[in-house]
Amino acid sequence: MAVTNFIQQIWSKRIQDDLELKCKLVDNCLRDYEGDVKQAGSVKILGVGEPTIGAYDGTQDITIEEMADKGTVLAIDQANYFAFYVDDVNKAQSVPGLAEKYQEKAVHGLATARDSYVATLIKGATNVTTATNLTQDAVKAAIDTAIVELRERNFDEEGVIEITPAAYNVFKNCLITLSTNNPELIKKGVVGKYDDFDVVMSNNMAKDSTHAYCDVRGKKAIAFAGQINEVEALRAEKRFKDIVRGLDTFGAKVIDEARIQVVKVPLTATA
After folding, report:
1. 2 in a domain, yes or no?
2. 218: closest CA among 256, 174, 164?
3. Position 254 in a domain
4. How many structural domains is the chain composed of?
5. 108-160, pLDDT tens digit by residue?
6. 242: phi then psi, degrees, rounded to nearest 5
7. Half-sphere exposure of 55 toward its Cβ, with a 13 Å CA cutoff?
8. Comparing C-alpha atoms, which of 11, 236, 233 is closest to residue 107?
9. How far apart are alpha carbons 91 and 77 in whole angstroms?
10. Is residue 143 in a domain?
11. What is the DSSP string of 181-198?
């Protein structure tokens, strides 16, 4: 069976679109620099310093200064692939819903890899608040402290609280329930609001042996850029089947530590 009728653009677009919907932590990153992401490439993130503000009374000359270049490079240095057998690619494309079943399985794994990578960056952020216990009062107090810490650093943007299922379980009674049945919002893991922050629950938050690394952050704290670079079909050499495989390349980086506050939450409650 030939794979000459494989429609690469459709498979690639569906996987990319579904991947955008499945990612939770990535969705809360700065995505302005996606551009044309290439394997082992990089993206330049533009930035400038803050100008000095001087008093003026109309009698003195003003001082003109050079604006410092605060730009940084986001390395596209992460790559993950999928590869699986399909009995018949042409049939998979012609039977309604069959191609989507294959794509769904690939997307789930890619989304987990993307979010898990962002979670490691959150864990490594420098500003940390630690909850004293896995209880409603302790988690709420830590999140309140984290929000205050952010606001004292002039935080003034759309923000998100990202927590594990265990942290959500003890914190959920503090939330404002979502007033929407928007399935796309629910897919993104948004479970409510707290103090004007969306609350997102994710299974992919980083952990160590004692704590989970939740966070409160703005959507400009971490930059992310990624792209499905290749999706292709080929005939299996040693089986009477086709192979579909694809490559996802991406990079992420904490670009503003002031916009993120880690909240360490114990994995278990203590008496």
Report:
1. no
2. 256
3. yes
4. 1
5. 899 999 999 999 999 999 999 999 999 999 999 999 999 999 999 999 888 99
6. -105, 160
7. 1
8. 11
9. 35
10. yes
11. --HHHHHTTEEEEETTEE
Query: Which residue in the block uniquely carries the two structure tokens 């990089």?
Result: 42
The CA distance from 261 to 248, in Å, is: 29
Do 27 and 118 meet the contact criterion of CB atoms below 8 Å apart?
Answer: no
Q: What DSSP character marks residue 46?
A: P
Q: Return the CATH number at 124.
A: 3.90.1690.10
Radius of gyration of the chain, Cα coordinates, nearest whole angstrom = 23
- Tokens coding 200: 């997102």
Whether 106 contacts 228, CB under 8 Å: no
| CB-based contacts of 243, cutoff 8 Å, min separation 6 | 83, 84, 85, 86, 233, 234, 235, 236
Q: What angle do the packed helices 8-22 and 98-123 form, to 10 degrees?
A: 40
Q: Sorting pLDDT into bands at 50, 70 and 90, what band is 35?
A: low
For the entire predicted model, the pTM comes to: 0.85
Residue at 64 is within a domain: no
> What range does the domain containing 111 cover?
8-48+69-266
> Within 13 Å and on the Cβ side, how many CA atoms surround 125?
28
What count of other Cβ atoms lies within 10 Å of the Cβ of residue 185? 13
Bridge partners (DSSP) listed for residue 238: none
Q: Residue 99's pLDDT band (boundaries 50, 70, 90)?
A: low
What's the Cα-to-Cα distance from 184 to each of 8, 134, 197, rounded to whole Å? 26, 30, 18
